[in-house]
Every structure is written in structure tokens, then in C-alpha cells.
């Protein structure tokens, strides 16, 4: 029984189940109850009940909420090995990455959120006239949260951490490809002692359970991480239904700009990780690599050398450095984009096709002499395919880097301070990394410009997105400053 | 007629040197289609003048100008933050200089009493401009202590080209609410004023040019919702849209934003705001505040106190005093300084209000006074009070936007909290009580973006304003 509502486990209302696979072997791991609209309705009812004024959750001291979130962090740390293994098997993720980065990130994020509570001040206002005014930063209410498959547990924590910290209740739909770690954490939520109904989890599909969340008349906010295409549908459904608040973390085609004066070895390695990490399945993947003309050829040579060093295989096996893509649909989409690169005239430096006879493996692929109008330079690939492009001038590369409707992240490699500040200020991206990449930390707000998203997650800014501001203005007989 | 007025550089439609009414790049243009539309004085029902009617092509031109003004390296982008603030201060000065003209234009175009336009609307405009002028060089990012050997800081950048769609109930004030914060933060803007009330927005255009904002920073395209408004909501090069108006249209705006380019959306929509009067309240204060709260601006406020909940013990006395107030409310020519209530904005609103009044009668509320239009007076409606109103009646659920006060009865705090929160709206609420515990409890429990305690319509540039639930998304001020 896999639908978690009111701290209890339920079967799906329809009785349906769906299979969950291991992308390295294509074998079925198990079956999971398949939630649909009726299950979402049940979950929302529970979440709404838990949110009532006077409920255990609403009357709980903020410090106690923080203590529960800390406890959850401790329990995740206790079960770190189990969760990392589950995440590797279900997500095709290298075990070493699951254990250190995903699980490490989960624990750090929860601890950040837990401590935020004692620092969340309200502000006193000084309206004209004899009034006393203050704002309350209230929880929004019932939040629907839709999680992706690329960092299943980590993205789950990014969503529930801030929401719970600010006093909301949640209804979560994990990705249908990767529901397992969320379900295990549900049992930890129960063990930590969160009141029933505060966290509810309904596994299922986008068009059914996901759509039910976006258009639910009793959900006050929806938070989604996934593709830009689906993000638009979610915001539209939110507008059509009850104007629920919307935050979106969507796709990217992030530029990585290497100037001739950078530390070349460092730039090559960081650019490489920035693209190939987790088989290229990151929203921040540095999938447009702009290299200054004078160092271009050497950069390409070293990047190809680096890409050829991969050992593909089962992500649980030590020594394996690249796992499979998540499923057939992604696998086929990436291969199609690789073909387009070849057809449209990019130079295939290495890789360029599938690997192995089982599992969704693709060879690490590098294209050089890529130009801006090619599909591989414009569309999000979400696979192990690196595009290396040439640039001449600073103004030119800024224009080209910004010439996309995405705007999630960007990287700049240079030793020159003026270049660093000029370019980082000019790039239309929610995060700009200078001489580094993928530095993601719970203290830092993360989110997209333009069509890479709406709103921010984490950091003080992200936590504000989980509050609704109420201004209280009281008449007093005489004001003194 | 606008000529010979000190400092005026083409504020009136038809002024010398003014080639049209569409303000783009600090110049006046005719509409691409050649069409015009009329704007009326709702008090006399006469046409004031004709105004160029913008459409999608004019919006495209405006967005192009706003986009160019926002380019990296442009005069606006390179201006010091303090410089932006200084321009806003100067705009406040010019609005103050031309206060009487603007108040007159506003009164002619909306039917609101001249003294309200002069002392409330214009006062709010000047103060709001000055408040945001002061913020311009205080938009600060943060340095953040992250792990590892990195320096991490945030920049609070302008979003880009912002679209603003403003309503007809406080035309100039709502325009300033949109313009001031947007410009303060370094954005450029394309505005569509309400088709019923474009005049003060157009006058402001001439002041913006006079102050010396760079061309393209502010652009104004008068026109209608389904044409200009829709073009703004779905424009691929507008990065944010801010809309004040009905919840129904707010939903369309958010949908269009989603379908086009996921532009950021803030909405200030309708309300059905509870005004809760406890038995221990200062009764005179409560009656007066509740009265002004619902009847101000002919009832045409998103903050209108359109559900007055009165505790049982004081109910009959409260109703009696409210009726007395309502019967005394001076209705008449907005330019008469004794007038407190002018006409409704147009026939459509007028008809809708009368329909809701009829529903009140039919559904069994007790009509205490008013209840119909003024005879032979165009769009004027008598101040109307209903008592014995219950929650299921249309007048207790639907936004009326007219001079109609429904008074409901309640027994205890728990009950009134539930009833007050039972609608999809959540803009404002008011509480009248002398008891500290009741005041704070109600303030916490009411699902409203603003809660007033022992006062009403206490709205200031310093205080964030906006709705819970379907009364809006986001905050202004």
C-alpha cells in the first residue's frame, strides 16, 4: 500500500498499480499503487484538515516545527545507505553520487530549513497617521508539489523542506519513473512525529495525478520541477482553476563561457562535469560551451580526451563512471538530437550513439564546430552530449548566450575581474557561476529567468515563496516614533 | 482647454503639438488602425473627447520601444539608482504642481467627488511616487555564507519590460501603484489604462516626458481589454504583467501569460470583504468606518466592506445608525464640494448593481433604505442598506461594486471566522473590538491580505497590499 495520507498507507481508489524499473537493466523493480484524481482529493482533504486553525500543526511552536524537520534530517542520515542504494537502482544514478551529493544535499537542506524558523522575522511598518502596523508571514496553506526523476529524493526535500518550515501542509506527487525514495521517507516522516495530514504522497502520472493537483480548487499553491512545456500547462491550469500561486523550475540551455585567460585545465574539467554529471540529466547542464577563439582547438582536444575516459555500466558497481539514461523516451530523444547534430554539420569528435545491449546507455558524445542555429545548440538535450562553440568578442558572446528563451544558469571562466563582473551582470540567468559550476547550496536562491522558471527555491528568497503576507493595521490613540 | 496652463506640454488630447494619444518613446502617435474611441463623463453622460484606440500593432510598437530602452548599455540601464529615484521625485513634484488639473480630469472621467480626487487620489499618487523614489537606491542583494571556497552574492535585477493593465475606479492612483515600483527597480513599462478612464494616464505621459525619463521607459497605449489587454498578456517580449481588475479577467490574464512565455504575473482582483463588529466595539466608530468602508467611491473599491457582520447584541442599534448615515449621504454633482457620492462609472456597472439590489429584495433581505436608482439622474444609485442578510443570498456572495451595504448577524467569534473565510475572495477584512485578545485572534484567523483593526481603508505606500486566495497573486506597495 503506497499512497501516504494522514500518516497511513492506502491502496489507490481505482485499484490500479504501475511498474517501476531499473534503467540499467530494464527490469521491473516492483509495482506501486497508482494514484489518480480521487486519491489527490483524499490527500487534499487530509492536508486541508491538518491546516485548520487550531490544528496540532497550526498551534505548534515554530521551534517545534524546526525540531521535527531536524529529526527528519537525522533519520535520513541514519538510513542514508538504504536511500542511496534505492536512488541508484531506481534512478540509474552512480552510487557514489547518490550517497555523497544527493543524500548529503538532502540532509543539509533540511537542516537549513529547520533553523530558518527562528530567524523569520515579521516587519513592523510605519504607516502615516495614528496606526500601528505589522506583517505576518503566514503559511500559504495546502501546497501541491510535483517532483522530477533526475534527483528524486533531493528535489523532494527541496520542496517539502521550505514548505513545512513555513507551516504549510503538502500533497506530493513524485515522478512516476522514481517514486521509491519518497515513499521510504514517508515512513520516516511518520517516525519523526509529524502530525497526520501534514505530508501526503500520491504516486502516479502527470496527466492524471499531476493535472489533478494543478487544477485542484482547494490547493493554494503548486510547485513544479520539470520541463518548460509541462510548466506552461501547470501555470495555465492554475490560472483556470483557482489562481493558486505557482513556482516553476524548468529547463535550461545554460551557457558556459571560457575566456582565453582562464586556467585551461580547470575550465576543461569543470565544463566537462557541468555537462556530463548524472548522464547530462540536469536542468543546469552546461549544454552550450562557448570557448574563445584562441584556445578553442586545444580546449576541444582536452575535452574529447576527458570524455573518452568514461566507464559505462551498472551504477552500483564501483569504478563505473556513467550510468544509464532514465527511460526509453529520454534515450530516444537524445539519440535523435545526436543525429540532428551530425546531419546539421557539427563535427562529431567522439561517441555519437548507444552503448551496450541492455539498459538505456548512451556513449559520452562531444560535438565541435557547433553553430547557434543547430538543434543541439537550441534544444535541451538532457543527455551526455557536449556542444563546443567558438566566440570572438565579449559583447558577441553575451548576446549569443542570452539569445534563448531559457535562463536558468551560466558559467564563466576567466581570471580578469572586469570580465567576470561585466559578464555575470549581463547574463540573463538565475544563477551565474564564476570559475566554478554546479555550486548549489541551501543558502542560495535558485531559479530561472525567462522561461526557465518562475520564482526561486531555497535561500531566504525561496522560503518567502512559501509564505502569504498579511498586513495588520491597528488604530491607536497616539503614535510615537 | 489646457492651453496656457503653466508647464503643460501637451497633456490634453488635441493639445497643440500633440499628434495623437498613444505615448511611445516620449512621442505621441495616432493608432495604427486609425480608430478612436470616446470617453464619457458619467455624471453628465456627455462625451468628453475622443482618444486614439490602440490595438495589437500599437502594443508591438510600444514593446519594441520598451525593449530597446531596457537593452544593456542604454541610458536607462546605465542611470545610477539614485538618478532613477530623482526622476521619480521630480515626477511627484510635477504631479503636485498640476494637482488641480489632474483632480479635475479624474473627476470628469470617473464621476468621483472632486474633493476625494484632490485629497485622496492625488495625495496617494504623490506620496507613493515619493516613497518609491526613496527605495530606488536601496534595492539591495545579499552576500551569502555558503560552503566551500566561493563568494556568493545575489543581485536584484529589474525584470525587464513590464505590462500594466489599470482599472477605472482609481485610474491615476492605480497607475502610480504600478509605475512607481516598476521604475524604481529599473524596469521599462507598457501601460494600458482602462478604456472608461484614459485621461489622467495620458496627462501623466506628458509629465513623464517633461521630467526627462529616457524615451521608451514609459509607454502608454489606450484601448480595450480584448485587444490591447490581451496583446499585453500574451506578448512574448513582455517579462511581467501586473493587472488590477475583476477576478474573472485576472484568470484570463494568468492563463494567457502561461500559454505565451511564462511571464511573471501579479494580480489585484475582487473582494467581498468582511467587516466584523463585536459587541464591545466603539459603536460610533464602527458604524462610521463600516459606512465609509462600503460607500466610499460609490462602492467601487476592491476593499469595499460588503459583508458587515454585527454581533447579535448590538445588531438593531448598528442597523439603525447605519441607515441614518446612509440616508444622510449627500449624492450629487461631483464638482459640488458637499457631494460624497457621485454616479456609477457606466451603464454596465449600473445595471449589474441594480440587478443585485433586486436579488436582495427577492431573496428576502430587508431593504432598510435606498434600493433603486435616483429618478432622472442617469447613473446615480441611492445609498442602499439591507439588513437580515444571510450567507446564501447573492448580495452576500457576489461583489456588488456599488453603494449597497449588506448587514449580517453573528453570535460568536468561531462562527464569524468560519463565515468570513467561507468565500473564494480574501482581499481585506476589518475588525471592531476593544478586546486585545479578540483583535489578535481575528487578525490571525481571517484569510485576508490586509486586516484592519478599529479602522478602515488605512492604505499606505509603506504597507504591502494584496489578496489571499482568488483576490489576487502577489503584493503591491
Automatic annotation (TrEMBL), chain A:
Keywords (A to Z) from UniProt: NAD, Oxidoreductase
Record-annotated Aldehyde dehydrogenase domain positions: 9-472
EC code: 1.2.1.3
Residue ranges of coiled coil: none
InterPro entries: Ald_DH/histidinol_DH (IPR016161), Ald_DH_C (IPR016163), Ald_DH_CS_CYS (IPR016160), Ald_DH_CS_GLU (IPR029510), Ald_DH_N (IPR016162), Aldehyde_DH_dom (IPR015590)
GO molecular function: aldehyde dehydrogenase (NAD+) activity
Source domain of life: Eukaryota
Active site per database record: 249
Homology family: Belongs to the aldehyde dehydrogenase family.
Name of the protein in its database record: aldehyde dehydrogenase (NAD(+))
TrEMBL record, chain B:
Similarity-based family: Belongs to the aldehyde dehydrogenase family.
Catalytic residue positions: 268
Source organism per UniProt: Canis lupus dingo (dingo)
An individual GO BP term: carboxylic acid biosynthetic process
Span of domain Aldehyde dehydrogenase: 28-476
Gene3D superfamilies referenced in this protein's UniProt entry, alphabetically: Aldehyde Dehydrogenase, Chain A, domain 1, Aldehyde Dehydrogenase, Chain A, domain 2
Origin superkingdom: Eukaryota
Single GO molecular function: aldehyde dehydrogenase [NAD(P)+] activity
One Pfam family here: Aldedh
Full protein name: Aldehyde dehydrogenase 1 family member A3
Assembly mode: Homotetramer.
CDD domains in UniProt: ALDH_F1AB_F2_RALDH1 (cd07141)
InterPro entries according to UniProt: Ald_DH/histidinol_DH (IPR016161), Ald_DH_C (IPR016163), Ald_DH_CS_CYS (IPR016160), Ald_DH_CS_GLU (IPR029510), Ald_DH_N (IPR016162), Aldehyde_DH_dom (IPR015590)
Extent of the signal sequence: none
Amino acid at each position: 500500500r503506497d499512497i501516504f495520507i494522514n500518516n497511513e498507507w492506502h491502496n489507490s481508489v481505482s485499484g490500479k498499480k504501475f511498474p517501476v524499473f531499473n534503467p540499467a537493466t530494464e527490469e521491473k523493480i516492483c509495482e506501486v499503487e497508482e494514484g489518480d484524481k480521487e486519491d489527490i482529493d483524499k490527500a487534499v482533504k487530509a492536508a486541508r484538515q491538518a491546516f485548520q486553525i487550531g490544528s496540532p500543526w497550526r498551534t505548534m511552536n515554530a521551534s517545534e516545527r524546526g525540531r521535527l524537520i531536524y529529526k527528519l534530517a537525522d533519520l535520513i542520515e541514519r538510513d542514508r545507505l538504504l536511500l542511496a542504494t534505492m536512488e541508484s537502482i531506481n534512478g540509474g544514478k552512480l552510487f557514489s553520487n547518490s550517497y555523497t551529493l544527493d543524500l548529503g544535499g538532502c540532509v543539509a537542506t533540511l537542516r537549513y530549513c529547520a533553523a530558518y524558523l527562528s530567524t523569520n522575522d515579521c516587519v513592523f511598518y510605519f504607516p502615516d497617521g495614528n496606526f500601528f502596523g505589522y506583517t505576518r508571514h503566514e503559511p500559504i496553506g495546502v501546497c501541491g508539489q510535483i517532483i522530477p526523476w533526475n534527483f528524486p529524493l533531493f528535489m523532494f526535500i527541496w520542496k517539502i523542506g521550505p514548505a513545512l518550515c513555513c507551516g504549510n501542509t503538502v500533497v506530493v506527487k513524485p515522478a512516476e519513473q522514481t517514486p521509491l525514495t519518497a515513499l521510504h521517507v514517508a515512513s520516516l516522516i511518520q517516525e519523526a512525529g509529524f502530525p497526520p495530514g501534514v505530508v501526503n504522497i500520491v504516486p502516479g502520472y502527470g496527466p492524471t495525478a499531476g493535472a489533478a493537483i494543478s487544477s485542484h480548487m482547494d490547493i493554494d499553491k503548486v510547485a513544479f520541477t520539470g520541463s518548460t512545456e509541462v510548466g506552461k500547462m501547470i501555470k495555465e491550469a492554475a490560472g483556470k482553476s483557482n489562481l493558486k500561486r505557482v513556482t516553476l523550475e524548468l529547463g535550461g540551455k545554460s551557457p558556459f563561457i571560457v575566456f582565453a585567460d582562464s586556467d585551461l585545465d580547470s575550465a576543461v574539467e569543470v565544463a566537462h562535469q557541468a555537462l556530463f554529471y548524472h548522464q547530462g540529466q540536469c536542468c543546469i547542464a552546461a549544454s552550450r560551451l562557448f570557448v574563445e577563439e584562441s584556445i578553442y582547438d586545444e580546449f576541444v582536444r582536452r575535452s574529447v580526451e576527458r570524455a573518452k575516459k568514461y566507464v559505462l555500466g551498472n551504477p552500483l558497481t564501483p569504478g563505473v563512471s556513467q550510468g544509464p539514461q532514465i527511460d526509453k523516451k529520454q534515450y530516444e530523444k537524445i539519440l535523435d538530437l545526436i543525429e540532428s547534430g551530425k546531419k546539421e554539420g557539427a563535427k562529431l569528435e567522439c561517441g555519437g550513439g548507444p552503448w551496450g545491449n541492455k539498459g538505456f546507455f548512451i556513449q559520452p558524445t562531444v560535438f565541435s564546430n557547433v553553430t547557434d542555429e543547430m538543434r543541439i545548440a537550441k534544444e535541451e538535450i538532457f543527455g551526455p552530449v557536449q556542444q563546443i562553440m567558438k566566440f570572438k568578442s565579449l559583447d558577441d558572446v553575451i548576446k549569443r548566450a542570452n539569445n534563448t528563451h531559457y535562463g536558468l544558469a551560466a558559467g564563466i571562466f576567466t581570471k580578469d575581474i572586469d570580465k567576470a563582473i561585466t559578464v555575470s551582470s549581463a547574463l540573463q540567468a538565475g544563477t551565474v557561476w564564476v570559475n566554478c559550476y554546479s555550486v548549489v547550496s541551501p543558502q542560495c536562491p535558485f531559479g530561472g529567468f525567462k522561461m526557465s522558471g518562475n520564482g526561486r527555491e531555497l535561500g531566504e528568497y525561496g522560503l518567502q515563496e512559501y509564505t502569504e503576507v498579511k498586513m495588520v493595521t491597528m488604530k491607536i490613540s497616539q503614535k510615537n516614533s | 482647454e489646457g492651453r496656457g496652463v503653466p508647464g503643460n506640454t501637451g497633456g490634453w488630447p488635441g493639445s497643440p503639438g500633440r499628434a495623437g494619444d498613444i505615448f511611445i518613446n516620449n512621442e505621441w502617435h495616432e493608432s495604427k488602425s486609425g480608430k478612436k474611441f470616446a470617453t464619457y463623463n458619467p455624471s453628465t453622460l456627455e462625451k468628453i473627447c475622443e482618444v486614439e484606440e490602440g490595438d495589437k500593432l500599437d502594443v508591438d510598437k510600444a514593446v519594441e520601444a520598451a525593449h530597446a530602452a531596457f537593452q544593456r548599455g542604454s541610458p536607462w540601464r546605465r542611470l545610477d539608482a539614485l538618478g532613477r529615484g530623482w526622476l521619480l521625485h521630480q515626477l511627484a513634484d510635477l504631479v503636485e504642481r498640476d494637482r488641480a488639473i489632474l483632480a479635475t480630469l479624474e473627476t470628469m472621467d470617473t464621476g468621483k467627488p472632486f474633493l476625494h480626487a484632490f485629497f485622496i487620489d492625488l495625495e496617494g499618487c504623490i506620496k507613493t511616487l515619493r516613497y518609491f523614489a526613496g527605495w530606488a537606491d536601496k534595492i539591495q542583494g545579499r552576500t551569502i555564507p555558503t560552503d566551500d571556497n566561493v563568494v556568493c552574492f545575489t543581485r536584484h535585477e529589474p525584470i525587464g519590460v513590464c505590462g500594466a493593465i489599470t482599472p477605472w475606479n482609481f485610474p491615476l492612483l492605480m497607475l502610480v501603484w504600478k509605475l512607481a515600483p516598476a521604475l524604481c527597480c529599473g524596469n521599462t513599462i507598457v501601460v494600458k489604462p482602462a478604456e472608461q478612464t484614459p485621461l489622467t494616464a495620458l496627462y501623466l505621459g506628458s509629465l513623464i516626458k517633461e521630467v526627462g525619463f529616457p524615451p521608451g521607459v514609459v509607454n502608454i497605449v489606450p484601448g480595450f481589454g480584448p485587444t490591447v489587454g490581451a496583446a499585453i498578456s500574451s506578448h512574448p517580449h513582455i517579462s511581467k504583467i501586473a493587472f488590477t481588475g475583476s477576478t474573472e479577467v485576472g484568470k484570463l490574464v494568468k492563463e494567457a501569460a502561461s500559454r505565451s512565455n511564462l511571464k511573471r504575473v501579479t494580480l489585484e482582483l475582487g473582494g467581498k470583504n468582511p467587516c466584523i463588529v463585536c459587541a464591545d466595539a466603539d459603536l460610533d466608530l464602527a458604524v462610521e468606518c463600516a459606512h465609509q468602508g462600503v460607500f466610499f467611491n460609490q462602492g467601487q473599491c476592491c476593499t469595499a466592506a460588503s459583508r458587515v457582520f454585527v454581533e447579535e447584541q448590538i445588531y438593531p442599534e448598528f442597523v439603525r445608525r447605519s441607515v441614518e448615515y446612509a440616508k444622510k449621504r449627500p449624492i450629487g454633482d461631483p464638482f459640488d464640494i458637499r457631494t460624497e457620492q457621485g454616479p456609477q462609472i457606466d451603464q454596465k456597472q449600473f445595471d449589474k448593481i441594480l440587478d443585485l439590489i433586486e436579488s436582495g429584495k427577492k431573496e428576502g433581505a430587508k431593504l432598510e433604505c435606498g434600493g433603486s436608482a435616483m429618478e432622472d439622474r442617469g447613473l446615480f444609485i441611492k445609498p442602499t442598506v439591507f439588513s437580515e442578510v444571510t450567507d446564501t443570498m447573492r448580495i452576500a456572495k457576489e461583489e456588488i461594486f456599488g453603494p449597497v451595504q449588506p448587514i449580517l448577524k453573528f453570535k460568536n467569534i468561531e462562527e464569524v471566522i468560519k463565515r468570513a473565510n467561507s468565500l473564494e475572495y480574501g482581499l481585506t477584512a476589518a475588525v471592531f473590538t476593544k478586546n486585545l485578545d479578540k483583535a489578535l485572534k481575528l487578525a490571525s484567523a481571517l484569510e485576508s491580505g490586509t486586516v484592519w483593526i478599529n479602522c478602515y481603508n488605512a492604505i499606505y505606500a509603506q504597507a504591502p497590499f494584496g489578496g489571499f486566495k482568488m483576490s489576487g497573486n502577489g503584493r503591491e506597495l
